[in-house]
Every structure is written in structure tokens, then in C-alpha cells.
């Protein structure tokens, strides 16, 4: 029976309700109203909800309206900055205005998004800039910090995001001095977090949300218990973020950064201590170089993740790791003796002690000693040109999430357009520890059958042949040419992306077609998207970062091409480790892991095509396994309900018709 609160929520979405008066061309959507009432029910019963809502459902308003009407505090976590900004600057103010309500709103980002005044001072004093360009960047940041109220690095538009100076002027949880810092009372991070504590509606990102759960950042004051509702938007991304976040990590780059901070701290002291610290940092630095050299001689291949359980030469790295451990322990002992000399010295000692503990752990792992853990751990490492990264990734993180939800005692709403496989939520809820949550699905209100065609060519080789990307490029070119660009080409690997991009540029030049071919990595993502939109007839070739979080409406994007089913790559230590774990339990890892993950990714890629009820377009997936294999048909059924064909002539006629309709409109 529908409760009184649900009726109140439903009235807001009525044809003549508050939203209709505040929203231009407002049309009530049954799926949106049902979604909102489900959130209202979760608030009333305290039960968590996993809500999958197709594109165009209006899920943001659907969860915000009941949350605000309930007069409680709401925490909204998103995966990306784009949605964070949309919620904070647009959606929440619009709903509050429509409801005639007032509320304190805060947008909180991770500490790396705020300038650290102390580290900025040190960067200027120590000449941290490594090039003339970075000198200019540092000067701009210094001027900005003197004038800014918030200290948000995103407000400095003329310093690139990838400038090497940013790590020098922002803090981490490890190098922050907390209340012992001389700038603590005027710290940008602390001011932002004080504002967050007072907010009725707080918008954060998934990394900050997980920091609160794991208490990895000791400056976060346990936000979760203070909120009556937690909404996790873009929840499908939480799976990969959790896997990465709950891993215990050690990086030689991190140690190198720590050594720089030790030298900065030494600059505030005098006498024999300074000489001793400098000599010991040199010893640690040399030990790291020895470890890198030994690893390079053994492996020769860089950037390839390696599972330690399958690394036959693991014991050859034990001795250089023990030397690094010993030199770090010596430095830590020296820092302990002088830790009361300054706040910086104390911070350096605490960090050194953590490094000693971590290096001991990894020395034991490479020695083959067993490590204590409630959950099975996958140990792996990556060798790069000037660093090594060590990772201990848990097989499962569901227990941590479940424990956080239980301790908070309030409902969570996890939402996305892609959480299930053909209506089956098992994979997602098991991974997230949400077996007790209600699961609901609402289809998109778009008329997919009349708005889009899904074309699976049946005359293309199956993936796996050596020249598959070349054949994909040749197959898709006639459609891109006929459509005059206006296309996304989404690839599953960087190699395929580069190969297809090169071929498309050759075809455009050969056919004398003035078509702009944009390829990922040749410019920042937002710049490529800006050029794509402004051109109006470009082709953008990208890999996984373009499969989601991109919202382009209208004729500028009417053709989305995907090279193949995005199965997890073999050889990834975490994926292989999870497969081994599932196999040991007597289950099929292909059905349990590979198919659900591939389906989620494919649904995200397909979702780039139709973003509005007026959109028209074709989705082309160059993988005949979708129609020829039994598992392919399962994946096929999870995709939007487009009209479908395997015939080239039908697909080509559809693209020709789209081109003719555009010509008529112009």
C-alpha cells in the first residue's frame, strides 16, 4: 500500500506539480515517478535500494526530490567531476527552487584538488619547478593562492592538469601535518571540510566516500553516520574503484617524494643531524636504484603487471628489497631521534615507520612467506622506467562496504543505467555486499526501435586474428564516409585505437574527404570532445575512457562503432586471481566474471548513441560472436531494444536515410 510520503513525492512530479512550474517543457514520466517513490520507500523503511534506470529516466531528480522532502541530510557520491558539478551548480539548486526550500549545499573534493599553503611555500623556497614552464606555473599558483577563498586547483585554468608542479603544491594524507601545520586555521582543505560538516546536502566523489569507509585519510571526520541517506550515483564505476582503492600499495615514486620531504625538513634544522639525514636519504635512494636495475635486468619488459605467485624469479628480488628495507630502517631510526625537533620532522618519522612496515611486508611476499588476511589477496607489481609499484588487492571488498552500511544504519541508494545483465543483478550485489538490498529496473523512455539500429556485420572475422583492427577500419569506413563523420569509434585496446585511427586518416586522405579524425592521447579528453562538438562532422577514436560519462545530443553524434565485446584482458593479475578463486570454488569464471563485466562495459558504450528523445543513430559492433555464440546472445539481449540487423545493405540504407534527413533539415 502506497504510504503518505510516497504520495507527497508523487505529487511533486505531477503534470501540474512544482517541477512542472519550474521546468521548461516538463512532461511527467512514469518510470521517474516510480523510481522516486522507491527512494521514498527506502527512506521510510531504512532498506537499501539498487536502482537501474535507463538513459533519459531522470534519475537525478528521482532520488533528489524524496531525499530533500524527507528533511534529512543527504550525501551524494559520484564517480566523476562532470556529474559533481552538474549536481552542485544546476540540479540541486533547481529542485530546491521548485520545492521552495532552502538547504546548505557543499561540494567536497579530494585533498589533491586543493592547494596546500605549506607545500606551496616549500616549493617556492626549494625551487621545486623542474623547467621554465613549471616556474611560470608555480608563479601563477602562488598568485592565485593569495587571492582565492577556496584554493581549488580547478579554478586555475591556465595551469595544465598534468603539470609536474601540482604534486609539489598539493598534499596527501601521508604528508599533511594536520593540526600541527602553521596554516591549519587557514587551510583550504580544512575550510572545505568544515563547510561539508555543516551541509544538508553534500556532494563528494567515490574516492572520498571510500576514504571515509576505510579511514585512509585521518583528516576526514567520519561523514557517513551523520547522513540520513547515502546516494551512490554512477554506481557501476564503484566496482573498479573499490578494487583499486582497497588495495595496499607501495610505490618507489612515493618513497622518492618522501625523501625530498626529509631534505626539506632537514633544511629547518642544523648540525650533525642534517648531515646524517642527507647521507641516509642517499643510501635509500641508491637502494631503490639497485632494486630497479636488478628488476630491469630480470624482466627487461616494462609496464606489464606481474602476479608474484606466477613470477618464477621472485626470490631474485628479495636481496635488493632487504637492502632497501635496511636503509629505510636506518633512516627511520635517525628520524625517531629528532622527531620532536619540528612538525615536519615528526611527520617524516611517522611516514618512514610506515615505509619500513610496508617494505617488510613486501620482502616477505617475495620471499614466499604467507601473509595474514581474512580475505584472499592478489599480490602483483609493475616495473616502469623509473619506478616500481607493488599492489596487494583483495579478492573481495563486500565485507568492508557491508560493515560501513550496517554501522551507519541508514539506507543507501546505488544507481546507474548499467548495473544488471538482462535484469539480473547478481554480479553487482554480490560484489558490493548488497544481497539484502531491493533491486529495481526501469527502462529508458526513449523509443529505441524507431530511433536506432544495431548492426552486427556477419562478414567480418572474429576477434583474435592478427589484423583484426585493420579489417575493422576497412569495414567501418564506408559507413563513416556516408554519414560524413559524426561518429565515435570505441576501441577495447590502445593498440586497436591507434591502428584504426591511422587507417581512417589514410582513407579520408585517399578519398579526398575533409574529415577531422580525432584520436585519444593526442589531446586531453575534454579538448577532444570540444573539437568534436564544434566540428559538427568529426570522428573521434578512443579507448575505454570514452565509453562512458560522455553526453552528446543531436546530429553531431549519430554513429557509434565498437570494435569488439570488451572482455577483461587476460594477463591482468587481479582478473586472473579472481578467476582462479572462482574456479577453486567449482564455478565458471567466464560466466561469473567475464560475461557480466563485458556486458556492463558494452551497455555503457552503447549508451553513448541515444541521449535524447529526438536523437537518431546507428550502433555498429564489429563482433559476430554476439550472434554466433550462446554467451553473445545473452549479452545481445542486455543491450537497448534497438532495431537489429546483420545485413550490410540494410545498415547502409539506414545511414543514407539519416544523411538525407539531415540534408532536408538544413
UniProtKB/TrEMBL annotation:
<keyword id="KW-0347">Helicase</keyword>
<feature type="domain" description="Helicase ATP-binding">
    <location>
        <begin position="18"/>
        <end position="291"/>
    </location>
</feature>
<dbReference type="InterPro" id="IPR027417">
    <property type="entry name" value="P-loop_NTPase"/>
</dbReference>
<dbReference type="InterPro" id="IPR014013">
    <property type="entry name" value="Helic_SF1/SF2_ATP-bd_DinG/Rad3"/>
</dbReference>
<dbReference type="GO" id="GO:0005524">
    <property type="term" value="F:ATP binding"/>
</dbReference>
<comment type="similarity">
    <text>Belongs to the helicase family. DinG subfamily.</text>
</comment>
<keyword id="KW-0547">Nucleotide-binding</keyword>
<dbReference type="Pfam" id="PF13307">
    <property type="entry name" value="Helicase_C_2"/>
</dbReference>
<protein>
    <submittedName>
        <fullName>ATP-dependent DNA helicase</fullName>
    </submittedName>
</protein>
<keyword id="KW-0378">Hydrolase</keyword>
<keyword id="KW-0067">ATP-binding</keyword>
<dbReference type="InterPro" id="IPR014001">
    <property type="entry name" value="Helicase_ATP-bd"/>
</dbReference>
<feature type="domain" description="Helicase ATP-binding">
    <location>
        <begin position="40"/>
        <end position="296"/>
    </location>
</feature>
<dbReference type="GO" id="GO:0003678">
    <property type="term" value="F:DNA helicase activity"/>
</dbReference>
<dbReference type="GO" id="GO:0006281">
    <property type="term" value="P:DNA repair"/>
</dbReference>
<dbReference type="InterPro" id="IPR045028">
    <property type="entry name" value="DinG/Rad3-like"/>
</dbReference>
<dbReference type="InterPro" id="IPR006555">
    <property type="entry name" value="ATP-dep_Helicase_C"/>
</dbReference>
<dbReference type="GO" id="GO:0016818">
    <property type="term" value="F:hydrolase activity, acting on acid anhydrides, in phosphorus-containing anhydrides"/>
</dbReference>
<dbReference type="GO" id="GO:0003676">
    <property type="term" value="F:nucleic acid binding"/>
</dbReference>
Amino acid at each position: 500500500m502506497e504510504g503518505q510520503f510516497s504520495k507527497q513525492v508523487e505529487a511533486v512530479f505531477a503534470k501540474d506539480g512544482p517541477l512542472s512550474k519550474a521546468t521548461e517543457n516538463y512532461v511527467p514520466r512514469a518510470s521517474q515517478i516510480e523510481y522516486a517513490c522507491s527512494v521514498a520507500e527506502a527512506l521510510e523503511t531504512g532498506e537499501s535500494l539498487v536502482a537501474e534506470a535507463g538513459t533519459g529516466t531522470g534519475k537525478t531528480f528521482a532520488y533528489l526530490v524524496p531525499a530533500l522532502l524527507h528533511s534529512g541530510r543527504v550525501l551524494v557520491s559520484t564517480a566523476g567531476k562532470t556529474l559533481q558539478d552538474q549536481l552542485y551548480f544546476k540540479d540541486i539548486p533547481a529542485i530546491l527552487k521548485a520545492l521552495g526550500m532552502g538547504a546548505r549545499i557543499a561540494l567536497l573534493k579530494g585533498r589533491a584538488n586543493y592547494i596546500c599553503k605549506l607545500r606551496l611555500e616549500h616549493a617556492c623556497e626549494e625551487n621545486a619547478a623542474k623547467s621554465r614552464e613549471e616556474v611560470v606555473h608555480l608563479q601563477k599558483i602562488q598568485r592565485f593562492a593569495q587571492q582565492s577563498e577556496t584554493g581549488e586547483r580547478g579554478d586555475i585554468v591556465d595551469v595544465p592538469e598534468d603539470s609536474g608542479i601540482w604534486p609539489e603544491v598539493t598534499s596527501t594524507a601521508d604528508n599533511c601535518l594536520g593540526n600541527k601545520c602553521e596554516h591549519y586555521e587557514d587551510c583550504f582543505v580544512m575550510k572545505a571540510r568544515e563547510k561539508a560538516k555543516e551541509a544538508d546536502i553534500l556532494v563528494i566523489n567515490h574516492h572520498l566516500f571510500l576514504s571515509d569507509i576505510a579511514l585512509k585519510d585521518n583528516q576526514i571526520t567520519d561523514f557517513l553516520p551523520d547522513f540520513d541517506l547515502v546516494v551512490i550515483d554512477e554506481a557501476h564505476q564503484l566496482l573498479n574503484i573499490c578494487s583499486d582503492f582497497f588495495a595496499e600499495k607501495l610505490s618507489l615514486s612515493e618513497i622518492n617524494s618522501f625523501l625530498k620531504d626529509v631534505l626539506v625538513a632537514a633544511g629547518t634544522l642544523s648540525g650533525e643531524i642534517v648531515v646524517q639525514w642527507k647521507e641516509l636519504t642517499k643510501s635509500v635512494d641508491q637502494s631503490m636504484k639497485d632494486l630497479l636495475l636488478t628488476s630491469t635486468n630480470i624482466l627487461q619488459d616494462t609496464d606489464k603487471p606481474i602476479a608474484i605467485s606466477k613470477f618464477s624469479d621472485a626470490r631474485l628480488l628479495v636481496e635488493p628489497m632487504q637492502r632497501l628495507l635496511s636503509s629505510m630502517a636506518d633512516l627511520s631510526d635517525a628520524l625517531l631521534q629528532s622527531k620532536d625537533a619540528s612538525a615536519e620532522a615528526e611527520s617524516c618519522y611517522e611516514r618512514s615507520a610506515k615505509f619500513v612496515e610496508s617494505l617488510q611486508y613486501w620482502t616477505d611476499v617475495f620471499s614466499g612467506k604467507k601473509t595474514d588476511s581474512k580475505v584472499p589477496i592478489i599480490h602483483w607489481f609493475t616495473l616502469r622506467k623509473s619506478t616500481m609499484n607493488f599492489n596487494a588487492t583483495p579478492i573481495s571488498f563486500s565485507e568492508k562496504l557491508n560493515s560501513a552500511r550496517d554501522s551507519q544504519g541508514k539506507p543507501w541508494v546505488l544507481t546507474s543505467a548499467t548495473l544488471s545483465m538482462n535484469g539480473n543483478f547478481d554480479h553487482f550485489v554480490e560484489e558490493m555486499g548488497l544481497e539484502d538490498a531491493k533491486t529495481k529496473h526501469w527502462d529508458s523512455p526513449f523509443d529505441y526501435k524507431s530511433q536506432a539500429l544495431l548492426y552486427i556485420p556477419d562478414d567480418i572475422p572474429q576477434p583474435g586474428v592478427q589484423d583484426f583492427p585493420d579489417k575493422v577500419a576497412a569495414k567501418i569506413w564506408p559507413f563513416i564516409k556516408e554519414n560524413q563523420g559524426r561518429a565515435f569509434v570505441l576501441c577495447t585496446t590502445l593498440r586497436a585505437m591507434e591502428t584504426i585511427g591511422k587507417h581512417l586518416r589514410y582513407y579520408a586522405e585517399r578519398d579526398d574527404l575533409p574529415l577531422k579524425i580525432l584520436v585519444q592521447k593526442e589531446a586531453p579528453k575534454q579538448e577532444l570532445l570540444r573539437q568534436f562538438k564544434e566540428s559538427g562532422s568529426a570522428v573521434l577514436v578512443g579507448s575505454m575512457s570514452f565509453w562512458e560519462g560522455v553526453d552528446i545530443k543531436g546530429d553531431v553524434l549519430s554513429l557509434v562503432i565498437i570494435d569488439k565485446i570488451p572482455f577483461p584482458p587476460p594477463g591482468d593479475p587481479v582478473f586472473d586471481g579472481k578467476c582462479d578463486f572462482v574456479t577453486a570454488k567449482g564455478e565458471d569464471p567466464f560466466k561469473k566474471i567475464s560475461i557480466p563485466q563485458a556486458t556492463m562495459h558494452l551497455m555503457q558504450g552503447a549508451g553513448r548513441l541515444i541521449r535524447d528523445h529526438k536523437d537518431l543513430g546507428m550502433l555498429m559492433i564489429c563482433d559476430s560472436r554476439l550472434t554466433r555464440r550462446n554467451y553473445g546472445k545473452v549479452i545481445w539481449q542486455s543491450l537497448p531494444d534497438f532495431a537489429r540487423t546483420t545485413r550490410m545493405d540494410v545498415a547502409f540504407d539506414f545511414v543514407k536515410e539519416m544523411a538525407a534527413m539531415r540534408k532536408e533539415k538544413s
